[in-house]
Amino acid sequence: VQLQASGGGLVQAGGSLRLSCAASGRTFSGHVMAWFRQAPGKERELVAGITSGGSIKYRDSVEGRFTISRDNAKNTMTLQMNSLKPEDTGVYFCARGIQWSEQTNDYNYWGQGTLVTVSS
After folding, report:
1. In Å, how far are 17, 29, 112 from 98, measured between CA atoms?
2. Which residue from 28, 45, 59, 119 has the fewest beta carbons nearer than 10 Å?
3. What is the predicted pLDDT for the residue at 35?
């Protein structure tokens, strides 16, 4: 499985970005998919995850601002990010998981990351 993340960029606080993740090779149908982010000097953290059945979980700080979705037929996943804040800055990674988890060790396929920079 190869995951390709795209859509990052520079945006002012309050703005929006839409991240996309495309999978090639084996599909991600039947697997947990998630977005993680890593800010400079910090550990990688779960932003949002979505199970194959459509159950969704967000980290508290993005709840109500970010929306995760997936299209199993197209092997794509998106993260709509609204009302962005400077603290949302980081490299965003899409990942396919073995099981639902907030731990990076439970995700065995990763995209290359796309940089999101939110200026104040």
Report:
1. 28, 12, 18
2. 119
3. 98
pLDDT at 110: 96
Residues in the chain with pLDDT < 70? Answer: 26
Q: Given this model, what pLDDT does residue 26 score?
A: 67
Tokens matching residue 107: 């995700």
Predicted pLDDT of residue 48: 98
Please give the order of strands across the beta sheet that includes 66-71: 2-6, 17-24, 76-81, 66-71
Cβ count near 5 (within 10 Å): 23
pLDDT, residue 105, reads 94
CB contact at 8 A, 9 and 67? no
* C-alpha span between 17 and 82 (Å, rounded): 7
* Cα dihedral 32→33→35→36 (10° resolution): 50
Strands (E), the chain: 2-6, 9-12, 17-24, 32-38, 45-50, 56-58, 66-71, 76-81, 90-97, 107-110, 114-119
